[in-house]
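Instructor's aside before we start: the two examples that follow are unrelated to each other. I chose them only because their records fit on one page, so don't look for a connection. First example below.
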Amino acid sequence: MRRLALLLLLSGCGSEESENRSGPVPKEAPAAPIPAPSAENEQASRAAAATVSEYYEAIARRDYPAAWRLRERRPGDTLERFAAGFALYADYRATVGMPTLPVRQDGALWVAVPVQLYGRRRDGAPFGSVGRVTLKRAAGGDRWRIVG
């Protein structure tokens, strides 16, 4: 093991002369400036993040109908099934992060919002996870819906 470490150390060493033989180092082109987001896009991102905050605040209060109204429906979804998914938790909290700027696709706007979930299960065990919530706003619409 010591021999391998010594070989790796020595292989990284070189004289100035060998480094100069490789030729001049090409210069990188300067990076193009990133345009500032529009006020409309920033407002849309903030509104999406506010929807996620409202959603998790409703879950923390156990107001599952209020949280349910913020979700896009999928076939087979029911409020009862949604609420039952939180039965194991005594305390359910979220920290909402910085949303992405909206992306237009298929006639709708899409935003992803990072979220850290944490709390306690009914048995007293803590839980935590990190992920992101995807939201969609239909073209011409004013309400964000959680889709994933």
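Example two begins here.
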Amino acid sequence: MVWTNGITRRGVAALFMSLCAGPRSHAAPAAAELDRLERRVGGELGVCAVEVGTSRVLAWRPDDRFMMCSTFKLLAAAATLVRVDAGRDDPGGPVAYSAADLVEPHPVTGAHVQAGEMPLHTLCQAAVQESDSTAANLLMRRLGGPGALTGFMRSLGDRVTRMDRYELDAIRPNGDLDTTSPRAMALSVRRLLFTGALKPGSAQLLEDWMRGDWRGAHRIRAGVPGTWVAGSKPGTSPTATNDVAILRPRGAAPVIVAAYYRSAPAELQRREHVLKEVGEVVARWVAA
């Protein structure tokens, strides 16, 4: 299956690997802050922040695998938008479903289940902006299943991210199933939003939906200055607290941040505060 817009898979893979190999020595002080944060809070923290248009990368445990949880919904919507861009799907086309398809959370699909269908575009927005799990499952089913979403990631040059199951099974730890790395996610999102994998209008839609997210308000976004424009796609399980953010600092290049935190079960507010502190570290790194 061809996913990209006129760019060969070999070319995409080469770009992805070159970004992975970019210089990171200037990020050492910020990485040391992340090291100290992880030591203080316990658990395992993985972070990759990529400044768009430069070689600046901030990384801490960037290649460790973490469960995606709901951060995969951003990818499912993006894969659907690529199909729309290529004329292989109709954004206003109806997608049928029933009450038997509902899985939590379903704030949008649950409210419209009596209609028996929803437009594809609305499902994309619901998956990203409202983290609607039923919408994400319907998108994956239309793509061809979790394996097709993995294939989409491979077309971006991402050899790490893998999707194996539908929600809600996808939040249950099982080896490498349904995992990514902070570096793989950050670079893939960078490619989707900034390097042509999505047409400009679709890239803007995806970012707008991330800006409309409210579930990540106390995570990375909470740690950056209020003058920055920010969007996010969080993911959560009893032991995982994740966030993928697009940050637009005033007077500086955009930054993509993927932060994954694995810990023992604890109060959500406490776990979210860890990612708020990640945001604070990123903000200082951007200003350095």
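Strands lie at 44-51, 57-60, 66-67, 94-96, 117-119, 179-180, 229-236, 240-248, 255-262.
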